[in-house]
Amino acid sequence: MQGIIIGGILAFITFQILARAYVTQVNGWTTIYGCGEPGNGILLRGACGAIFPGPINVPEEAMYWHTNKDDAAQKLSGQHDYIMHFPAGQLPPNNAFWSLTLGDSRNHFVSNPINRYSVGDRSGLVPNADGSVEIYIQNAAPAGHESNWLPAPPGDFILWLRVYLPGKAILDGQYKVPAVAQAQ
The domain containing residue 113 runs over which residues? Predict the structure, then answer.
């Protein structure tokens, strides 16, 4: 019996190591290319399931990224204010829509005074004069930037970026999701 338990523990640890081999991390964001593709093998399917709970579409239909860390590799927390800066012309390329969703540390929606749980290309984000877009991720409303505010809880949280019918730059791995930076 002891051998079975030890074997199970070793198998779990081995799977966690192998799953990380499929992960791509850029600017603190994690994704896996190839999730949802039929016939991509049990290890890749398992890695996708471990990283992205819930149903996963084929990459041509949707791509997913998540993070719980800022650009300094610190846990995201509502104790700090963050900005996600998209340079002009660098919003996620897509042929449908994209959204940035916030969840608490257990990945549940967070009650907030404006009932906003995500922002995206259909949220009425207001660009800066140079065409760039900044999303303000913080607990209190940012003065003068409420339209670009994604309310955060007072504690730790997770961000998910989803892009539907992603553009070629995403599918080819050329698009880099911008880092989440602590506001100065």
Answer: 2-182
Percentage of residues in the chain with pLDDT exceeding 90?
A: 67
* Domain containing residue 140: CATH number: 2.60.120.600
C-alpha to C-alpha distance for 24 and 29, rounded to whole angstroms: 8
Q: What is the DSSP string of 8-54?
A: HHHHHHHHHHHHHHH-EEETTEEE-TTTT-TTS-HHHHHHHHHHS-S
Where are any strands of DSSP class E within 58-184? 62-67, 82-86, 94-104, 118-120, 133-138, 149-151, 157-166, 180-182
Domain count, the chain: 1
pTM of the model as a whole: 0.85
